[in-house]
Amino acid sequence: MDNRRPFLFDAHVALGAKMVPFGGWEMPLAYQGGTVAEHMACRNDAVVFDVSHLGTVRCDGPDMFDALQNTLTNDLRKIAPGKAQYTHLLTDGGFVVDDIIVWWYSDTEFDVMPNASNTSGVTAALPGRDVTAERCILAVQGPHARAKAAALGTEFSEVPRFGVRRFDFHGVEVRVAGTGYTGEDGLEIAAPNDVAEEILAGLVAADITPAGLGARDTLRLESALPLYGHELSLTSTTLEARLGWVLGWDKETFRGRDAVEAERERGVSRHLTGVKCDGRQPLRDGGEVVINGDVVGTLTSGNFSPVLERGIGLGLLRGELKADTPAVVSLRGRDIAVTLSALPFVRKASSRG
């Protein structure tokens, strides 16, 4: 089956993007400046990603709060309309179907934002409709993201962190959340297709660097943010990924609650753990992590960190292992010296000083 092209495909090609298959779509991998330059632009200034391959499931109606509250793991009572919340959808056995952001607009209207390949699974679990094809999502990220996005209108820069706003832009409604997937400050703009090209052009004209999936992956990895299909999957759990804070123990139910409650009671045997290379060798998922001759787990993600200038990786490793412990990653016939690392590897600009 052919990959879907995002609405802004031609605009990306005109900007010099290299387009690659990803999650059933053709998306920008990098532009002419390259992944490392795009990565550093996000850490130091501002970039814009097209993340329109992510899904949008619109849930509107009088019973939607209860439907989301009783299905997804996090507790919506922790927030209120006008806020966004990170949450999980689990199987009955407690494994992760998807990790999701919920945008809550009013008592009866929500946008549920699944990963690209999981939209159908979310629509099967929730009484919503898939509106992915009707809009584009542009993620503006970096320490100067808000200031530069104000070139489109001050409303964009005024959306608070994890806030959600709707407002008019040139005669159509845009929806904006103070969320992102880089570890930096920023916004995600859900724009109807009618104005998406104009918004992208306005962001680029405001000296915001276009960035592709290559930089998005290295940024989220430095920030130790999980990627579905890697740190989270149908064979891993929320607790293993150290994300227990998204489990709403104070509410009556959510899908998979009995299984994760049993997991919590017996204890988790493996945990998300970081490793750093002693040199610049990039790490890759699938590498076995060995300590004193004992295989303690497998890397779920790996790459090169442009900020640290060394290879880094995440893995679900056995036991509670201490940072700074020496280890070896066995990858493609090579043994690579690494050290266990505290997470995240890199903190956002405001924390780095």
Secondary-structure topology with pairs:
Blueprint (H helix, E strand, L loop, with lengths): L8 H6 L3 E5 L2 E6 L4 H10 L2 E4 L6 E4 L3 H8 L11 E8 L5 E11 L2 E5 L5 H7 L3 E2 L4 E7 L3 H5 L4 H4 L6 E6 L2 E6 L8 E7 H13 L3 E2 L2 H10 L34 H10 L3 E8 L10 E4 L2 E12 L4 E9 L7 E6 L2 E8 L7 H4 L1
Parallel strand pairs: 3-13
Antiparallel strand pairs: 1-2, 3-9, 4-7, 4-8, 5-6, 6-7, 9-12, 10-11, 11-12, 14-17, 14-19, 15-16, 15-18, 16-17, 18-19
Average pLDDT number? 96
Number of helices: 10
Q: From the helix content, strand content and strand pairing, which structural class follows?
A: alpha+beta
Q: Count of DSSP E strands?
A: 19
Share of helix, binned: 10-25%
Short description:
By secondary structure, the protein is α+β, with helices and mostly antiparallel strands.
Which terms would index this structure?
353 residues, alpha+beta, single chain, 10 helices, 34% strand, Gyrase A, domain 2, Elongation Factor Tu (Ef-tu), domain 3, 6-stranded antiparallel beta barrel, 19 strands, 6-stranded mixed sheet
Structure in words:
The chain is α+β, with helices and mostly antiparallel strands and 353 residues long. Among the domains are: 138 residues, 2-Layer Sandwich (Gyrase A, domain 2); 84 residues, Aminomethyltransferase beta-barrel domains (Elongation Factor Tu (Ef-tu), domain 3). It contains 10 helices and 19 strands. The strands form 4 sheets. It has a 6-stranded mixed β-sheet. The mean pLDDT is 96.
